[in-house]
Amino acid sequence: LKQGDEVLLPNNVYFPSSDLAASVLSGWGITHQYYDPMNPADLAARLNQRTRLVWVEAPGSVTMEFPDLPGLVAAAKARGVLVALDNTWGAGLAFRGFDIGVDIVMHALTKYPSGGADVLMGAVVTRDEALHLKLLKVHGQLGLGVAANDAEFILRNLPTMALRYHAHDAAARTLAAWLGTQPAVRQVLHPALPGSPGHAHWAAICTAAAGLFSVMLDAALTPSQVDAFVDALKLFKIGYSWGGPVSLVVPYDLDGMRADRSALPGHLVRFSIGLEAVADLQADLAQALHALG
To answer: Going along 36-112, which residue ranges are E strands?
Structure first.
């Protein structure tokens, strides 16, 4: 991207990406717009002569809407615009971005590839040789690099990634379905479960799902009660860096994250399901929910 170009971001984009566009790219004369990732027609209407990149995420950050990826890619391709996908959640296992026409696939290797959620590393991949050379040149010019030990950690854990990913998936689906039966839970936001926003889109291209999902707790609860629920959990640790063996939980204040809260009433809590025994995790959730009264 260069001065005068524009990038289009989904309106549920990962916040650091949004912040980068607003606080860094804008200073370089690169503009941005937000589009509705659940509506390819909205993306198509926002594409213009300055659009050089469409950023897509599947699912959306925190609220977990799974977009119509083929529809979004088709809209961008119709105007000759590059598409970059953050496939950290899918990890190249739930679905393959290149198979649906994406030009660039990004992964946070910190998550499932590392196995421990304790390595700061990422990957940017393309099948286009010319685009690869452009990215490689900028990578060198910026002086980016990783420590040899960090690379070793990723390579060590890649052989077990598929096994771990499917274990996270099975455990998360079990717990998400169970949470959906609990009185305090008003909505489960898990792309693989019917009723979750974009479930049909997930089913159309995916064969698996990550261990990350969110729930909406009853709007009648107070923020203090939600915090008490989170604090009451024993096996779940409070933390953001999901994808590792330890289950994590984080409450979010959506009022500062989403302009339209009408489809998401209540309090959002996000879970990352680790590799502990599912029965133990369910018991932990049950005792914390019981504390809500």
So the answer is: 51-57, 82-86, 104-108
The CATH classification number of 6-156 equals 3.40.640.10
CATH 3.40.1190.20 correct for 160-290: no
Q: Are 257 and 151 in contact (CB under 8 A)?
A: no
And the tokens for 227?
A: 């915090």
Tell me how far apart the alpha carbons of residues 192 and 273 are, in angstroms, rounded to a whole number. Answer: 15
State how beta strands 6-10 and 51-57 pair. parallel
Q: Domain segments of the chain: what residues?
A: 6-156, 160-290
Query: Residue 256 has what pLDDT?
Result: 80
255: which 2 tokens? Answer: 């009022």
Cα–Cα distance, 179 to 185 (Å, whole number): 7
Percent of the chain, pLDDT > 90? 92
Rounded Cα distance, 275 and 105, in Å: 27
How confident is the model over 8-30, as a mean pLDDT?
95
In whole angstroms, give the CA distance from residue 76 to residue 68. 13
HSE-up (13 A, CA, CB side) for residue 227: 4
152 phi and psi, to 5 degrees?
-65, -40
Question: Can you tell me the distance from the alpha carbon of 56 to that of 37, in angstroms, rounded to the nearest whole number?
Answer: 8
Tens digit of each residue's pLDDT (9 = 90 or more) over 221-237: 999 999 999 999 999 99
The reported pLDDT for the residue numbered 123 is 94
Query: Which residues are CB-contacts of 77 (< 8 A; sequence separation ≥ 6)?
Result: 83, 101
The reply to whether 160-290 shares the fold of 6-156 is no
Tens digits of per-residue pLDDT, 140-190? 999 988 899 999 999 999 999 999 999 999 999 999 999 999 999 999 999
Token look-up 């070793």 returns 152
Q: Which residues contact 88 (CB under 8 A, 6 or more apart)?
A: 106, 107, 108, 111, 112, 243
